[in-house]
Amino acid sequence: MLVLSKLECDYETVVDYSSQNASSARLVDGFGEAHAYMLRFAAGGMIGRHEAGFGQLLIVLAGTGWVSGGDGTRAQVDAGDVVYFERGEQHAKGSDAGMKALMVQVRDLSRPSNSNAEQRSTAAPCGCSRQSRSRAMAPQNG
Q1: Whole-angstrom Cα distance, residue 23 to residue 30?
Q2: 96 close to 45: Cβ distance less than 8 angstroms
Q3: Could you tell me the fold of the domain covering 8-134?
Q4: Which residues contact 17 (CB under 8 A, 6 or more apart)?
């Protein structure tokens, strides 16, 4: 077993995709092209719009932020929310106030195929209904 403490994470500045005030620490790698990163967004930080080279899960651990998918509409996310991006999907993520998140990338990651999961796929980032989480935000530049 290996316990990664906060002190052992070597964060690097994210410089791709017109990113601002965002850093990541690569946590693990695996076979089948899988990666995990800790992301840290300072207030106003973002990873700009780009195509997902992998299926991606973003798990918000602390703070608040926003995500946008293919249509560019921003949705607010909070600690405990889990966001899924399909491989090839145009997307961005960031925070106006500061956020820490775990990002897991897997080459062929997919959602469960049961009917309940399909119903959630068009719902809020956490999988609950938009009726209970009406937090879409207007698209913004930058």
Answers
A1: 21
A2: no
A3: Jelly Rolls (2.60.120)
A4: 47, 48, 49, 50, 92
Question: Tokens for 45?
Answer: 């930080």
Q: What is the pLDDT of residue 104?
A: 93
**Pair of tokens at residue 113:** 């195929």
The predicted-structure confidence for 103-134, as pLDDT tens digits, reads as follows 999 888 777 654 343 333 333 333 333 233 33
The domain segmentation of the chain, as residue ranges, is: 8-134
Q: Which two tokens stand for residue 133?
A: 């989480």
3-state secondary structure of 18: coil
Write down how long the chain is: 142
Alpha helices in 1-142 (DSSP H): 115-120
Assess contact for 14 and 23: CB atoms under 8 A: yes
Eight-class DSSP state of 8: G
